[in-house]
Design brief:
Layout (H helix, E strand, L loop, with lengths): L41 H4 L5 E7 L9 H10 L1 E6 L5 H11 L5 E5 L2 H8 L7 H7 L1 H7 L2 H4 L10 E3 L9 E6 H7 L10 E2 H15 L1 E2 L2 E2 L1 E3 L6 H11 L5 E4 L2 E4 L4 H15 L12 H9 L3 E7 L4 H11 L5 E4 L1 E2 L11 E3 L5 E5 L6 H12 L1 H9 L6 E4 L2 E4 L1 H18 L21 H5 L3 H10 L3 E3 L13 H21 L4 H18 L1 H19 L1
Parallel strand pairs: 1-2, 1-3, 6-14, 9-12, 15-19
Antiparallel strand pairs: 3-16, 4-16, 5-12, 5-13, 7-8, 10-11, 17-18
Helix pairs in contact: 6-14, 11-20, 12-13, 14-15, 19-20
Length: 538
């Protein structure tokens, strides 16, 4: 099974690269403690005495010195030292855990790594702190707190990018100018394609528009480094979900009869020369370059993953030269029941207070401010009177701020701090009806508008199925990994098979190999964990 998770910090571009971190935590603010915060008074929690806290954020490593950062310090008395490695954040998280050289706050993926930190006692329960010092946390998170409890019933982290919103994810992204030449009635969106229509479209493109300046243009290409997005798109077309539910029992998705049909369809497109033959070795950069150079007509994936090539295409030829997201519907699937928009209301990240934090009360007060509606608008909109104004009871961005993000998103965010520190972010809108996410949601560009038009009815909630597999580091986790390897290695071979017979035989052998490896044992764990989760959520 492929991981389709992507942080919302990557709506337009790839995950932000980190800078070199300090080799160890700031000793003036950290000390060993038990896994529960020491009792304190409200006076200490409300103290505005200047204090420094270390924060490991897997998504960013920039210095906490821009305008928004300074305003956070002004409002709370807290200066934050950002820690993030230049290498693999997961490796650094494991190293910190093994050495107990922990920051005061840590932001990591939800899933196995959080469970490891909890099991090691590296992060503390937050329930008492929230009850005493987190009124805004309680108000903003609501039922999310109940759903992010650990198996012992306690909250050890707060979700980031939480709350459901009707925002699309996957689609087949096609060059609009070329689509207008071969299917003008559907180029403006609103009408889905069937898989048969899409196949005919690719063939028509290859015949009529398959060469540009003497070079072959691929009717379709894939990002070989992100098969989660590729398969997530095709699964969505067939209406499949994370697991195949068979008479109330969750099974691996590949056991859904529709999964084999889906792979046979992709293999057919490949055998007919409609898919880039180099796709298995396409790195992200290679794939982006092919699209940017006008060598690809269509590609599956999250619509925001095309931000870089679309920027090039738009600059060279205008808005219609970009690739836009469209809905393709599998055989016998109700267009309104496609599952192209998997979204978890429990968010992408987990933010926790570590056991070495010697000021947990001050930390919770900082968290409560940042998680509040006021804090969210500061983080995501900037400073009132500088970046936005209150007009007619609504947050109103200044034109130069919107233009700054339009001209150079990453550098403008880094310079101002607006949407740079994406912590405790709540999806959706504030009490005045304006979205918390100014750059991503306030003024939608033409690509976003097409995604909303074509794919809004494909969004579905994945939270109940998140991270149901065996706990990391266990023998069962090794079995689970072996099964995942069998699937990932075989699915590529199925897609590039030379005959339909070979493709079908490989798929059937994959199911047999999974059974031999112990897939039913892992499925039992998945179902047991699912039942426990449903009981916990009651």
């Amino acid at each position: 099974m492929f991981n389709t998770k992507k942080t919302f910090n990557v709506l337009i571009s790839a995950v932000l690269m980190g800078s070199v971190i300090a080799g160890c935590t700031t000793k003036e603010n950290t000390a060993s403690s038990s896994d529960k915060p020491a009792a304190t008074t409200d006076n200490k929690a409300n103290d505005m005495t200047p204090i420094k806290m270390t924060f490991f954020d897997k998504n960013t490593g920039d210095a906490f010195t821009n305008e928004v950062a300074k305003e956070i310090t002004k409002r709370t008395g807290v200066t934050i030292e950002i820690q993030q490695p230049t290498g693999n954040p997961s490796e650094k998280l494991n190293l910190m855990l093994a050495s107990s050289d922990l920051p005061d706050l840590v932001l990591m993926d939800r899933g196995d790594i959080v469970s490891k930190y909890i099991a090691a006692g590296a992060i503390i329960p937050l329930d008492d702190l929230i009850a005493k010092f987190g009124p805004n946390v309680q108000k903003m998170y609501g039922d999310t707190l109940k759903k992010t409890r650990f198996t012992d019933g306690k909250n050890y982290y707060l979700s980031n990018w939480y709350g459901q919103e009707n925002e699309p994810v996957f689609g087949i992204n096609m060059r609009k100018d070329w689509l207008k030449q071969i299917a003008p009635d559907k180029a403006e969106g609103g009408k889905p394609f069937t898989t048969d229509e899409f196949e005919a479209l690719l063939k028509d493109f290859k015949t009529k528009l398959g060469k540009v300046d003497g070079k072959d243009v691929y009717p379709m290409s894939f990002n070989g480094e992100n098969m989660g997005a590729v398969l997530g798109t095709f699964k969505g077309m067939w209406g499949m979900r994370v697991y195949y539910e068979d008479n109330g029992t969750l099974k691996y998705d590949v056991k859904d009869p529709k999964y084999k049909d889906m792979l046979m369809y992709i293999n057919k497109l490949y055998r007919e020369g409609l898919i880039d033959p180099e796709w298995p070795v396409n790195k992200k950069q290679t794939w982006e370059q092919k699209i940017s150079k006008g060598l690809v007509f269509a590609s599956p994936g999250a619509y925001w993953d095309f931000g870089t090539p679309n920027g090039v295409l738009k600059k060279e030829g205008g808005i219609e030269k970009q690739v836009y997201p469209y809905k393709i519907v599998g055989p016998g699937v109700d267009p309104a029941k496609t599952t192209l928009g998997p979204k978890s209301s429990l968010g992408w990240d987990a933010i926790a207070i570590t056991k070495t934090n010697k000021n947990p009360e001050r930390t919770m007060k900082l968290i409560d401010f940042l998680a509040s509606e006021e804090g969210q608008y500061l983080l995501m909109w900037g400073i009132e009177g500088v970046h936005w104004d209150q007009k007619d009871g609504k947050h109103t961005p200044r034109p130069e701020v919107l233009q700054g993000f339009k001209d150079d998103w990453d550098n403008y965010a880094k310079k101002t701090g607006i949407r740079k520190w994406t912590w405790f972010v709540k999806n959706g809108k504030g009490s005045d009806g304006t979205p918390y996410d100014l750059p991503g949601r306030y003024s939608r560009n033409e690509i976003d508008q097409m995604a909303l038009k074509n794919l809004s009815d494909t969004v579905w909630e994945t939270a109940a199925y998140d991270n149901l597999g065996p706990a990391g580091g266990t023998p069962d986790a090794l079995v689970s990994q072996k099964i995942s390897d069998i699937m990932s290695q075989t699915i590529t071979k199925v897609i590039i098979s030379k005959t339909e017979t070979d493709a079908a035989a490989l798929f059937d052998k994959m199911l047999a190999d999974m059974k031999t490896a112990g897939d039913e044992k892992v499925e039992k764990i998945i179902n047991d964990n699912y039942k426990k989760r449903m009981d916990l959520w009651k």
